[in-house]
Amino acid sequence: MAEKLMKYAEATDKYDVVFGLETHVELSTNTKLFCPAHIEFGGEPNTQLTPVSLGLPGSLPVVNETAVDYAIKLGLALHCQINEWSQFARKNYFYPDMPRDYQISQYDKPTNGEGYLDVELEDGTVFRVPIERAHIEDDAGKNTHVGGADGRIEGADHSLVDYNRAGVPLIEIVTKPITGAGDRAPEIAGAYMRAIRDIVRALGISRAKMEQGNMRADVNVSLRPSADAPLGTRSETKNVNTFRGIEKTLRYEIRRQAAILDEGGEILQETRHWDEATQTTAGGRVKSDADDYRYFPDPDLVMLHITQSHIDEIAAQMPEMPRERRNRLKDEWNFSDIEMRDVINADALDLIEETVKAGATAAGAKKWWLGELSREANNQGVTLEELSITPADVAEVEKLIADGKLNDKLAKQTVNFVLAGEGTPAEVVEKRGLKVVSDDGALEAIVMEAMEANPDVVEKLKSGNMKPMGALIGAVMRATKGSADAKSVTKIVMSKIK
Amino acid sequence: MSDTAALVQLTAAEMAEKIRNKEVTSRELVEAHLAVIEAAEPQLQAFLKVSAQEALAQADEFDALSDEDKAKLPELAGVPIAIKDMIVTEGIETTAASRILEGWVPPYDATVIERLKAAHMPILGKTNLDEFAMGSSTEHSAYQNTMNPWNTECVPGGSGGGSAAAVAGFEAPLALGTDTGGSIRQPGAFTGTVGVKPTYGAVSRYGAIAMASSLDQIGPATRSVLDSALLYEVIGGHDKRDSTSIPEPVRPAAEAAREGAKRDLKGMKVGLIKEIGGEGFQQDVLDRFNECVKLLEDMGAEVVEVSCPHIGYALSAYYIVMPSEASSNLARYDGMRYGLRVMPPVDVPQTAANMMSYTREAGFGDEVKRRIILGTYALSAGYYDAWYGSAQKVRTLIIDDFNKAFDQVDVLICPTAPTTAFKFGDKIEDPMAMYVNDIATIPANLAGLPAMSIPAGLSGDGMPVGFQFLAPQKRDEVMYKPAAALEAALEEQWGGPVWKSMNTPWLEGLNK
């Protein structure tokens, strides 16, 4: 059933957009949040278990201190109030993927309280996103529904539960209601999520791979007639796991809700789902007062006491934050604002940095990643990172050019063969014989041949008319399939006619 | 009287001494107790499961050790023990006396079981209890009633009626229990045995099936104060798998008990809790209590009355906190991963949610359901502050009361239970009457204090009466000294342990 949608520009013109994001970040600790079960993506189902992660009778949780330190790191990066005392509570509800039938999550006493994150938009505008909290909780297992049409529970014949993920530590970053974004709400949401991704990667606390479910967000949206009106009823679109999906969800919800409100309708307080196939959100469970998780402090766990000296210790080891790093690299590489923004937008910052580290110039690295390689990634429909060429390969190609061993044309061919999986640039050059013919002996013979074949040209040159030199170079190029260096050819010809 | 009967009537400390003197082997002790179990079980039904093969193998393993290796083990090494079926044992079915866990064989050992195994103490089997330790008579077991060895028409108390009856009936010299509101101490009082609830956090709860996590504590059930002290020292001490475990070494309880046996209490200040006793307490319970107070004074203790003004709210607070935590702790029994699974009837949708409902409906008994419903209600949005929140505040007030009391005295005393053991069926239909039986034991759980019940003599109808000591938090040894002194003074009066007055027909005709 297609829902009525208002045009986006009209919707954001008529209504004030308020949105909020609840971002789940899976921490990359070696073991689970409350037991020493090993964590590994893609392991055989139900192999990463202890009595605790399976919730066996008598088992008890013990907090993984590394996970708490990771949370503090993130709290510092988000300028959060780090609370001296924090506490885990039980969120009680029955679900097959929850081994204890309650989730252990920080509730009214989170480790990280209020903070903020400044995000930079494409045009350079900086927007401050207010953070409500960033709390620690454990993940549930994973249900697989078998026998239904599309892996959904509806129509499934039976379900399988894999508890490997049960107990994996998560941090949930909850923003305050974000106001004042107007029609830029989707853009801000996307930039915020990317900024979070960059921060957790820089901190080394999460792999932050959206496609592996390391990061996902619940998108809350509500509209109101004006900025001074009370907040409207919100919808919550759960577990959106791509940046584009988050932006599109916001856009869609703004248009959907505006259409309903415009007709005098009411927004249901409900959870919805983003459907990538139809590019729409679909209604789910209606939230009501019946949702009662009966939170209470988990009596199996003592309160976490985080001293200022411990916070100071962690603060002293904080790596450079992404925004500062970008500014530093911009200076080091001597890029303009626009060049740097192109690099960021292409998601090529890390790749260029690594390429430079491997010996290339910044300009050279940028030329490849934003030029030929971006086009190739686009053609293949993959990210730059997913291309089968490494920063080291790119740096090697640059070095071959600098050494005069490849010209531009050969370099492009070499890169294409590397992308095709034929090996490193050096291997490709060797195997395919792509070297610039700069060996003077071999080149000289070819040049002599060309001169003999074109006596009239040689005569003109001898008489001081340099115009037909191009014809000789062309002939040499044809003979060498483009691997000759024009300068060298000219040099040899000049020496011969003297 | 056969040799077997004489052997099993020794205290655990005496059995251990015979092992050291090579007068008896661990295997002989296990065999003697297995013989008593075989003879007594038809009348007592204290055990849900007897692990004879495991116990014999463990005994043989101990007997085969060199003298040098044996010397490194705790004093009770080689002495067998029974385990309340609320504590998980690897490879031995563990049910919490509930249908919902019928047939569940744990893949791991509780910390206390690991420590018993490290001490080479053979495990005789798993004892009966009220389902999930919810009850004060063991009548709420889904499997069987356990009879009081003093009078098989009476309950052994609860929830740890099986452990107490096994120890009182000489089926085991030692047992472990769990005490959430008195489940070790009240059965101790009802069966004329010693029951100890250590300080909260003094013994690891890892592997103790949770009823109410902030109240549960594992502790010893024995026939002497010294035996309890020795057993506490085996199972106690820090465990990193329990976040609420106290990161300190075990307290010197055995030393205190041995000191107490000298019956010199000069300089000790004993506080009699004014608010526990009087109305609702059986007269001969109070009489035995007062006689014991006199004995303590005779040994040099100064006994003064102290007030814990908020103790009157303890029972109410307990019946909010305990069911609240239990409702959450028992959620995991949903048929998904282990234990009972009941599928819905064919005309009901075969969903996971329906399976959970049918499983829990079939698997839990009435008392368990009652407490889950109570707790679910108390934690509900809008009620949380009024119920759970208020109960926690009451708890703080009671802790403050005790702190003030311990500013004045070294140790506190009161009766363990208002009555002696009652008859089967007497209170089973009246939950409130059953709950009130825990009125004197609950305050120690709410405050996390160590407490101990020892036999104080018999009522007019010949049933045991319990006398309770409470000590300051993390100072368990403090109560062992006066308890051992009182035990010694009473045994001198009676001309032997209290069980000398008990009829034990199952010990007749045992040969060895």
TrEMBL record, chain A:
One annotated GO molecular function is:
transferase activity
Q: Name one GO biological process term.
A: glutaminyl-tRNAGln biosynthesis via transamidation
Note whether ATP-binding occurs among the keywords: yes
Q: Which reaction does it catalyse?
A: L-aspartyl-tRNA(Asn) + L-glutamine + ATP + H2O = L-asparaginyl-tRNA(Asn) + L-glutamate + ADP + phosphate + 2 H(+); L-glutamyl-tRNA(Gln) + L-glutamine + ATP + H2O = L-glutaminyl-tRNA(Gln) + L-glutamate + ADP + phosphate + H(+)
Q: Which UniProt keywords apply?
A: ATP-binding, Ligase, Nucleotide-binding, Protein biosynthesis, Transferase
Supply the EC number(s).
6.3.5.-
Q: Which major enzyme category is it? A: ligase
List, for all copies, the residue spans of the domain called Asn/Gln amidotransferase.
350-497
Q: Do you know which SMART domains this protein is assigned to?
A: GatB_Yqey (SM00845)
Would I find Hydrolase among this entry's keywords? no
Relate the protein's function as given in its record.
Answer: Allows the formation of correctly charged Asn-tRNA(Asn) or Gln-tRNA(Gln) through the transamidation of misacylated Asp-tRNA(Asn) or Glu-tRNA(Gln) in organisms which lack either or both of asparaginyl-tRNA or glutaminyl-tRNA synthetases. The reaction takes place in the presence of glutamine and ATP through an activated phospho-Asp-tRNA(Asn) or phospho-Glu-tRNA(Gln).
Q: Which family does it belong to?
A: Belongs to the GatB/GatE family. GatB subfamily.
User: Which PANTHER family does the record cross-reference, listed alphabetically?
Assistant: GLUTAMYL-TRNA GLN AMIDOTRANSFERASE SUBUNIT B MITOCHONDRIAL AND PROKARYOTIC PET112-RELATED, GLUTAMYL-TRNA(GLN) AMIDOTRANSFERASE SUBUNIT B, MITOCHONDRIAL
NCBIfam families from the xrefs?
Answer: gatB (TIGR00133), PRK05477.1-2 (NF004012), PRK05477.1-3 (NF004013), PRK05477.1-4 (NF004014)
Please describe the quaternary structure of this protein. Answer: Heterotrimer of A, B and C subunits.
Q: What is this protein called?
A: Aspartyl/glutamyl-tRNA(Asn/Gln) amidotransferase subunit B
Automatic annotation (TrEMBL), chain B:
* Subunit-level organization: Heterotrimer of A, B and C subunits.
Active site positions, chain numbering: K84, S159, S183
Which InterPro entries does the UniProt record give? Amidase, Amidase_CS, Amidase_dom, AS_sf, GatA
What does the record give as the reaction this protein catalyses? L-glutamyl-tRNA(Gln) + L-glutamine + ATP + H2O = L-glutaminyl-tRNA(Gln) + L-glutamate + ADP + phosphate + H(+)
Domain Amidase: from-to ranges = 28-477
Q: What class of enzyme is it?
A: ligase
Q: Its family?
A: Belongs to the amidase family. GatA subfamily.
EC number in record: 6.3.5.7
- The annotated region (Disordered) lies at 240-259
* Cellular component per GO, a single term: glutamyl-tRNA(Gln) amidotransferase complex
**GN (gene name):** gatA
The alphabetized list of GO BP terms reads: translation
GO MF terms held by the record: ATP binding; glutaminyl-tRNA synthase (glutamine-hydrolyzing) activity; hydrolase activity; transferase activity
The answer to keyword DNA repair applying to this record is no
Q: What does this protein do?
A: Allows the formation of correctly charged Gln-tRNA(Gln) through the transamidation of misacylated Glu-tRNA(Gln) in organisms which lack glutaminyl-tRNA synthetase. The reaction takes place in the presence of glutamine and ATP through an activated gamma-phospho-Glu-tRNA(Gln).
What name goes with this protein? Glutamyl-tRNA(Gln) amidotransferase subunit A
UniProt entry keywords in alphabetical sequence: ATP-binding, Hydrolase, Ligase, Nucleotide-binding, Protein biosynthesis, Transferase
